[in-house]
Amino acid sequence: MKIIRNRGENFQDVFPLANVPDEVLDSIYDHLSDFELFHSIGLLSQRFRLSVKRYLQTSSKIRWKAIAIRVDGVRQGLREAMRHEMSLMVNVCIALSAFEMVEDGGRQSVWEALAGNEHLRALRLLFVSGDEVTWIAHNLVHKLEVLELWYGTLGESGARALASQPSGRLQELVVGSCDVEGPVADVLFESSLCMEEDRQNRNLRLIEGLDALTLSLCPLRDDGMLALSTLRFPRLRKLVLERCEFGDQGLSELRVENVPNLAELALIKNRFSTRSATVLSEFCSMAQRLRTLQLSWNRLGDDGVSFLPSSKLVSLDLRHCSITEKGCRVLAESKTLECINLCGNRMVEGYSLASGEGLKSLTELRLDNCKVADKGAFAIANGQLSRLRYLSLRGSLISETGVSALAQGNLPSLRTIVLQGNLNTVNTECMLKDNLRSLKRVIVSSTR
């Protein structure tokens, strides 16, 4: 039995469940349910009827329910238990490969249970096939609010089945590590013929009616972005394109008029360069409702952030984007930013941000693994960051001198400070809390 707790602590114990009396199994599962901490349990027993049923019952408080099958011996008992319990779940997560060892009809039993579940609202499927996506599109999608498809194959048939469904209850679609490229992308994002005439958005299809769309580890490339640009998303508020392998050309296909209500945009670890600055500048200046932008793990450089002064962004994530102090001077001109994440930009020292007149509204600043050192700590302590509530400086070369400067600084609103990986002493926490009266939490050790 493997228990993974929410706090990241891993515990692994193996019990010979096949030889354990029923009353002992009941006691084990009752004990586990009291913790309300575990995420998933891999059941190793050959007597699955009781154990699976008890697992499903005790995991009723978990958002995603996962079942891992490890041995042959799963037969009618598993299907009966799952049919009963799965018919009551609101949120379900299934690794379909787990049912490969089940006798013929095992997967069909899962589909029947889900189809009969009137409470089902969110479904996450791992290792899904094109035929199964087609079945889901025709039989389940109408009742779902959230659908996640991971590590599978949509194929043109599955993509067409999803794309052809009318907009209904589904608000969020997540597709990860699937074949959304080439013909599949063309089919999935095929433009609706009636969109130009449907000004009131009454005949939207499933993709067009989403509030949130995430494509992660899907090789869209520039051609896929071109296909995506043919669709209009009148309701979309959140768009995440993570590691989709498109570059400056693909980014230029993103049209503001197609996402008029977009509030959050994440373009993580793609293939942008400094040449994307012009496109980003135009997009951000025209996207009136855009407030959160994530561009982490793109080689934007200092020139790539020149779009900021014309934007109304509140939160900006530029982790590992090759930003230096020159780029920080541009950031410091923004009067709307409240949260900035510059972790992993090795040449950022922090003093340009701290001394900038524009960042007086900043409440959260993350400079982990930057070149802050004592000089930067002194600048932050004596800068214009009087509203700062959260400050993270992990691994930023700060000694006790820098900590002392922070403790004596102009940070009256600071509630949390993170100093892991620096030259901390036993007096660091006391020094900070004694001087910064609003400070509630000091994190100086990886064990805390």
From TrEMBL:
GO CC annotations, alphabetized: cytosol; nucleus; perinuclear region of cytoplasm
Keywords: GTPase activation, Leucine-rich repeat, Repeat
GO biological process: nucleocytoplasmic transport
MF GO annotations: GTPase activator activity; small GTPase binding
SUPFAM superfamilies assigned to the protein according to its UniProt record, in alphabetical order: RNI-like
The F-box domain, residue ranges: 14-67
InterPro entries, per database record: F-box_dom, Leu-rich_rpt, Leu-rich_rpt_Cys-con_subtyp, LRR_dom_sf, RanGap
Pfam family, one: LRR_6
PANTHER family: RAN GTPASE-ACTIVATING PROTEIN 1 (PTHR24113:SF12)
Protein name per the record: F-box domain-containing protein
